[in-house]
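User: I've been trying to design a sequence by hand for this structure and keep getting stuck. Would you show me what you'd pick, starting by listing the structure so we're on the same page?

Assistant: Good idea, let's start from the same input. This is the structure you sent:
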């Protein structure tokens, strides 16, 4: 007797959920049979050294660094792939039925828990595997970042559903993204991490702390997904600087601003770790797009970041009067810039706006 029934299919343009929203923003559509899900990758779709395999391995390692007792173990070399076969598997298909990617989850009749999820990517999508900034959609490129889509689908593997209440990976995945320098970075984020902790408990026997900052924020909702926009720059009085005040530069807005003038720069801060933390945020002036503490410190502020919320906030910063007219500069935020936290990953701690001095 077949002891399983398909309960949910998640396509990035369509959602069928069987649960209601939790008190928090995150959504869960069931509970896992085992907190450690083994995903078996197709030997054809993910051969050794393959760019998609490297990208998926990166995603799994970042999911492993979440503060809950739920994680994914990735295996390779599966030669027998099918739906509802008792194994969670991942592969590429030539059928646009799965465009751009789909997760199918199954529940065991006897336990009422999810014991299989299969993920299928459509190979007709123009995927970006290198995560080069100007190649991906959010920064004006022509390719969809594979890692963010994989992170979204593997969120379904861990029983997370689509969500539209805040900036999060289970919404519009391709611009839930981090960038410092010329490479963008996928990450699980506060909302998904919070959902996993509330569902499966906090990690035991280890400390998992991780704070981050991004240049994207929630813009709205579309068909059950949060939509995301670039964070903005405002006048000191809070007026939005619209498109007449910026142009595109390396795939990003470059604001035309006046030296010696105060503006309000917006960023999204997240606590992806296990406990509420108060950290210092430093705001730096850099002559290049890689923000570090070696750059010129302009001002600092203290922020208390907890799980359960994305903190999109603005900071007043005065541009130095000695800046040359016509020059391009980068206004970066570094969360925990004085390195007081022992983080599982500190590579998502900086983000930047670009300005051109009038």
């Amino acid at each position: 007797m077949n002891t399983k029934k398909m309960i949910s299919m998640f396509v990035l343009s369509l959602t069928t959920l069987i649960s209601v929203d939790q008190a928090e923003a995150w959504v869960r559509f069931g509970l896992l049979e085992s907190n450690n899900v083994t995903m078996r990758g197709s030997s054809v779709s993910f051969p050794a050294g393959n760019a998609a395999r490297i990208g998926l391995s990166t995603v799994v390692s970042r999911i492993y660094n979440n503060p809950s007792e739920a994680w994914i173990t990735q295996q390779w070399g599966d030669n027998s792939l099918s739906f509802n076969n008792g194994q969670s598997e991942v592969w590429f298909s030539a059928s646009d039925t799965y465009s751009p990617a789909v997760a199918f989850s199954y529940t065991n009749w006897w336990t009422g828990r999810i014991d299989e999820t299969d993920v299928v990517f459509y190979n007709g999508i123009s995927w970006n595997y290198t995560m080069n900034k100007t190649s991906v959609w959010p920064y004006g490129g022509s390719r969809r970042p594979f890692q963010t889509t994989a992170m979204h689908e593997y969120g379904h593997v861990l029983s997370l559903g689509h969500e539209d209440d805040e900036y999060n990976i289970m919404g519009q995945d391709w611009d839930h993204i981090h960038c410092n320098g010329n490479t963008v970075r996928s990450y699980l984020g506060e909302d998904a991490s919070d959902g996993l902790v509330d569902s499966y408990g906090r990690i035991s026997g280890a400390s998992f702390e991780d704070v981050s900052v991004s240049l994207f924020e929630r813009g709205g909702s579309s068909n059950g997904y949060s939509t995301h926009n670039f964070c903005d720059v405002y006048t000191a009085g809070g007026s939005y600087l619209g498109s007449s005040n910026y142009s595109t530069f390396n795939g990003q807005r470059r604001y035309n601003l006046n030296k010696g003038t105060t503006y309000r720069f917006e960023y999204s801060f997240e606590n992806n770790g296990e406990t509420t933390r108060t950290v210092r945020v430093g705001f730096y002036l850099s002559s290049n797009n890689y923000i570090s503490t070696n750059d010129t410190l302009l001002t600092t502020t203290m922020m208390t970041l907890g799980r359960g919320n994305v903190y999109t906030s603005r900071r007043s910063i005065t541009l130095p009067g000695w800046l040359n007219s016509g020059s391009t500069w980068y206004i970066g935020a570094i969360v925990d810039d004085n390195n007081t936290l022992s983080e599982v990953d500190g590579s998502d701690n900086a983000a930047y706006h670009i300005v051109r001095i009038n």
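That's my pick for every position. To get oriented when you compare it with your attempt: The helical segments are 51-64, 146-157, 189-200. The first helix runs from residue 51 to 64.
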